[in-house]
């Protein structure tokens, strides 16, 4: 019996088996590389070398690998734009543009000189080859995400500089390609700039408006996920259509969708999961499959070219990183992080070498010959491996330094947010808001509560409550947040919430608002009134009429003397976290003394948040703010309980003013913390119950109704 030749079955042609082999690589490569203390990104590339046509020929480099490879590359660039903190980007824009320009000019200058003198290439070949050194791909960006360092300024600089260097490289590529195709005419430059300007305008002007329109009307996570992917590849195709590289379009789409996909949202979790599980590993394996280890033995020409290319690429990027560090007084570990992220060659480099390989000189020779093509493959392999190791090392050092220098978290922090829910339509928004307000460093879970009346419908209401709790658990799990749930039976809803609040030892409540209707004096709802009269802890009432990720501004009305309340910094910290996660502006209206303390606190704790302070001399000016509150703004009113320091008589009319002037607006009302359980203490000095309306106000309303009725009868 003869042994069958295994080579006759290779490469694998079955799509099912091919996909199985790729999944096995994605599954086991990180495990094996972890044992060897090698970055798993390198493992993906090396596995691609082994199974590719130049290795054991297990998988063919077919159209499916090309498709998933393109998707993975675009996904890396898209996530880079999506994860970028726009506040940090604006703050570091000078550093970013400076490094981007240097990371392009230094490799171009050194590369062109060595290409002409050492490799003895012509002018066009030297320019095109030098542009390849200038570009880089964020191959190690998943490492940054894994260590939670995407908001570090060094990462922001490297990511922003990638867009600059790749744009300039692709411009050089377009010019050189047009030169050899005879397209360089009088209108070439005008046409090229016009096409680029149009695409930039469409992406930055229309895409955000389309996203805002879509997210307002569709809250399903799967639908939003498909929409974001569609926008990403539409932007990539538009760039390809005008002759640029699609990865630039994917990056720009990530930037413009940044504010609509909060970092702690379920949508962001889905995007990162799918990218890191499938698309990005596919791209890395595809890069490895391009590597031909046999070319190392094909002659000195390839080795010489590859050596020069690797030396120039690594050295020039290091010089650019060093210059950025020295120029702006950055730390050594930040230079190492910038260098690690910016020395991998893949996307634009592949585009450049393939274009140059297909261009012919007048004598029939290729602009970039076989030696350059093979050298580029070696360059990609070496720089990807080097970038992975460098970034991994820098990330570890940065995490250790951050933990060593960061102030220790207050272990006495009692943060535990409770969310009483009854309406399924508002439950997801309440949970999402609580997730964005929580302290991620403490990593404490939420408490979701549903209280049902102890009546004849108790069993049916309990079952509805359990289904609602299951839905909330899923929503919180999307954001990787634990949640404790309870369906509670009570003869009084308010007392049920109060008792659960104490049993769970909660710190605050986030509650959906009563819609109001035509009864302004009941605008806050009887449940909310009973809660803030009976509890001394922070209570936040929320009415959000659209998805949180579409909010562009948070406007806060702060009463005078609010800084003397015990819960002043608690509600301020919650709003700061919410604004940070939504990447929107915080605008405060209040007295100058209060604004100064708010400004000082935010500058010390959340310097990246965009803030604005508008004087409001008297609380009677509150209705005038209605004209400045748009549909995509969240209006926050910080109020006070009766008998507290910041309470004033004008707050008695707050429900009427909100009902009359802020109907149809996104609204939040905050009742700050009070000391201990003082509000529940029974003394002769303190009233035992606080009514929402005084008897005088009720009498005045009764007289007004009588007078109006009499006027109508006389008319």
UniProtKB/TrEMBL annotation:
GO cellular component, one term: membrane
Presence of the UniProt keyword Ion transport in the record: yes
Keywords assigned by UniProt, alphabetized: Antiport, Ion transport, Membrane, Transmembrane, Transmembrane helix, Transport
Keyword Ion transport: yes
Pfam families to which the protein is assigned, alphabetical: Na_H_Exchanger
Record-level GO BP terms: proton transmembrane transport
Extent of the signal sequence: none
Subcellular localization(s) per the UniProt record: Membrane
GO molecular function: antiporter activity
Protein name: Cation:proton antiporter
Native source species: Marseilla massiliensis
Lineage: Bacteria, Pseudomonadati, Bacteroidota, Bacteroidia, Bacteroidales
């Amino acid at each position: 019996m003869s042994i069958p030749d295994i080579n006759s079955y290779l490469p694998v042609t079955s799509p099912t088996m091919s996909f199985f082999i790729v999944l096995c690589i994605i599954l086991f490569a990180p495990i094996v590389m972890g044992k060897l203390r090698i970055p798993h990104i390198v493992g993906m590339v090396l596995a691609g070398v082994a199974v590719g046509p130049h290795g054991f020929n297990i998988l063919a480099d077919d159209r499916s690998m090309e498709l998933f490879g393109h998707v993975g590359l675009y996904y890396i660039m898209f996530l880079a734009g999506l994860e970028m903190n726009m506040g940090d980007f604006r703050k570091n824009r000078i550093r970013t543009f400076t490094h981007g320009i240097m990371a392009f000019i230094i490799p171009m200058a050194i590369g062109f000189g060595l290409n002409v003198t050492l490799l003895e290439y012509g002018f066009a070949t030297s320019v095109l080859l030098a542009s390849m050194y200038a570009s880089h791909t964020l191959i190690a960006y998943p490492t940054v995400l894994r260590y939670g360092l995407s908001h570090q300024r060094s990462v922001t600089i490297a990511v922003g500089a990638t867009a600059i260097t790749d744009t300039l490289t692709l411009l050089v590529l377009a010019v050189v390609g047009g030169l050899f195709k005879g397209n360089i005419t009088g209108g070439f430059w005008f046409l090229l700039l016009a096409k680029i300007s149009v695409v930039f305008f469409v992406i930055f002007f229309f895409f955000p408006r389309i996203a805002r329109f879509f997210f307002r009307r569709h809250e399903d996570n799967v639908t939003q996920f498909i929409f974001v992917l569609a926008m990403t590849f539409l932007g990539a195709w538009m760039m390809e259509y005008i002759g640029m590289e699609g990865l630039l379009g994917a990056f720009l789409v990530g930037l413009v969708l940044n504010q609509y996909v909060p970092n702690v949202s379920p949508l962001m979790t889905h995007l990162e999961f799918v990218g890191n599980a499938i698309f990005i590993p596919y791209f890395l394996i595809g890069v490895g499959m391009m590597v031909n280890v046999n070319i190392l033995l094909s002659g000195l020409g390839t080795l010489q070219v590859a050596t020069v290319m690797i030396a120039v690429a690594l050295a020039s990027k290091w010089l650019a990183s060093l210059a950025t560090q020295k120029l702006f007084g950055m730390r050594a570990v930040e230079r190492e992080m910038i260098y690690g992220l910016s020395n991998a060659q893949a996307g634009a480099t592949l585009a450049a070498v393939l274009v140059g390989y297909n261009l012919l000189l007048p004598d029939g020779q290729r602009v970039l010959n076989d030696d350059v093509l093979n050298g580029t493959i070696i360059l990609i392999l070496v720089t990807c491996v080097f970038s992975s190791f460098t970034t991994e090392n820098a990330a570890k050092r940065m995490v250790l330094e951050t933990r060593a220098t960061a102030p220790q978290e207050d272990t006495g922090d009692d943060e535990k947010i409770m969310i009483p829910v009854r309406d399924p339509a508002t439950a997801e928004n309440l949970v999402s808001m609580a997730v964005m307000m929580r302290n991620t460093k403490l990593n404490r879970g939420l408490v979701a509560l549903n209280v049902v009346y102890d009546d004849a419908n108790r069993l049916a209401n309990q079952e509805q409550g359990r289904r609602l709790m299951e839905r909330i658990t899923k929503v919180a799990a999307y954001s990787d947040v634990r949640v404790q749930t309870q369906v509670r039976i009570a003869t009084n809803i308010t007392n049920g919430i109060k008792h659960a609040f104490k049993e769970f030892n909660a710190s605050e409540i986030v509650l959906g608002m009563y819609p109001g209707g035509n009864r302004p004096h009941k605008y806050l709802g009887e449940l909310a009134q009973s809660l803030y009269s009976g509890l001394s802890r922070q209570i936040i009432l929320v009415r959000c009429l659209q998805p949180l990720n579409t909010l562009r501004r948070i406007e806060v009305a702060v009463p005078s003397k609010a800084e003397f309340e015990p819960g002043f910094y608690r509600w301020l910290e919650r709003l700061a976290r919410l604004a940070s996660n939504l990447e929107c502006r915080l605008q405060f209206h209040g007295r100058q003394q209060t604004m100064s303390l708010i400004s000082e606190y935010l500058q010390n704790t959340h310097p990246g948040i965009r803030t604005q302070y508008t004087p409001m001399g008297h609380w009677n000016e509150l209705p005038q703010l209605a004209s400045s509150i748009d549909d995509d703004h969240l209006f926050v009113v910080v109020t006070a309980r009766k008998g507290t320091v910041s309470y004033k008589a004008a707050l008695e009319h707050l429900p009427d003013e909100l009902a009359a002037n802020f109907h149809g607006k996104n609204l939040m009302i905050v009742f700050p913390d009070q000391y201990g359980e003082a509000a529940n203490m029974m003394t002769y000095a303190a009233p035992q119950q606080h009514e929402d309306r005084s008897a005088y106000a009720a009498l005045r309303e009764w007289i007004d109704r009588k007078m109006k009725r009499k006027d109508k009868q006389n008319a």
